[in-house]
Amino acid sequence: MSETKSTRAAAPRKSKSDNAKNKKIFVLDTSVILYDHSAIEHFQEHDVAIPITVLEELDTFKKGNEIKNFEAREFIRFIDKLSHEMMLQNWLPINGSDKGNFKVLMIQAPQVDAEKIFGEKKADHKILNSALQLQHEYPNRKVILVTKDINLRLKARALNLNAEDYETGKVQNVNNLYTGNDVLTDVAPEAIDQLYDHGFCESSAVLPEPPTDNHYFVLKSYKNSILAYYNPAQKKIERVDKLMAYGIKPRSAEQTFALHAILNPNIRLVTIQGMAGTGKTLLTLAGALEQRREYKQIYMARPIVPLSNKDIGYLPGDIKSKLNPYMEPLWDNLKFIQNQFPENTKENQKIKELVEQEKLMITPLAYIRGRSLSNIFFIVDEAQNLTPHEIKTIISRAGENTKIVFTGDIYQIDTPYLDTQSNGLSYLIDKAKDHPLYAHITLLKGERSELANLANELL
Prior knowledge:
By secondary structure, the chain is of the alpha/beta class. The protein has two domains: 5-164, Rossmann fold (3-Layer(aba) Sandwich), CATH 3.40.50.1010; 174-186 and 242-458, 3-Layer(aba) Sandwich (Rossmann fold). 35% of the residues lie in helices and 17% in strands. The chain is built from 16 helices and 17 strands. It has a six-stranded mixed beta sheet with strand order 3-4-2-1-5-6. The longest helix is centred in the last third of the chain and has 20 residues, at 319-338.
């Protein structure tokens, strides 16, 4: 956990008794464990407690192939190893001399009963009662409920209980998130002329310091302008030409940058962020098709956000039939590209052939763990609905000659326990910038239609 405001500030040295009194007790709920199974190790010297109700809930999540199932299993193993047959109702030292203690809270009836106040026997209310009882037992210490459930935090505060979000993995200043490109005015005309004539120029001719690796620029002088990027291998500013990919032509400078990153063989990891209709998925899929000879397969995936909290297992049919409703936007983009060519052309027929031979296919993210993806062009759409751990899991599967492109809109999140700061796409953009294998572009202008732009701008 990134420390809370009160734990961040440096404090003067105090006696052991003072330190014991000032140590906080953090009570974690199930949503935190499913987000990060190692959460209890991220609270510095403070103590951490888990209500028994959380262990009961984790038991229902331990079976399955999704990341949340892995997180549940890993946490259960961690607690088993930590306890070493000792009683979990007692405070146990967490691994590491600089960390606090851990215990499991048994269900007790506190003086303030959340179940009576809120009128339901829910797991959330049992967790609240555990934290309230702990607050009663340790009146001289600050007890804080940590949960990614906003409504549970509100209920806790209504009961005069401190409550916070889990901060580890959060991007602190999402409003200044890396955009991947800049517009530079008053550039020396000689630098732009050199880019036109030779395709590159020294970075010092444009900026006093070397820019971020694979950063894109619109360079303008009083005479003309040009698109360019910083090539970290050559350590030079290079011209970016407007290219087409499988019949799709970029309509803006940002789209040109995005397609350049998608087609650049030296960039193995790409993120494209932008609102609906900016062309993220279309450009990525077109770029993948353009490079189909360079890869064994093209994989397309997007997180499955079940409706009404129901798993896809509730849907009829085999796994392909279950996935299709969630993957329709990917098929729509593929159909749009295919329709750029008459039906009897080789380009149109090639797409059909790729799908039939499973050279281009939908793959569930749940089955990525444990695999090694070599010679694959991997497109992950709606990546803002992934956790940082899920993003890491996907990237860590990459083998030789694999390229991964994540697309999404960090302001359009469909999962209940993620936000603009804690989702995996924001985390990746913030952490991966300035790596020579990585490029990012933020698309700002909707290109779907004037009607779609009206919705994005006015409604």
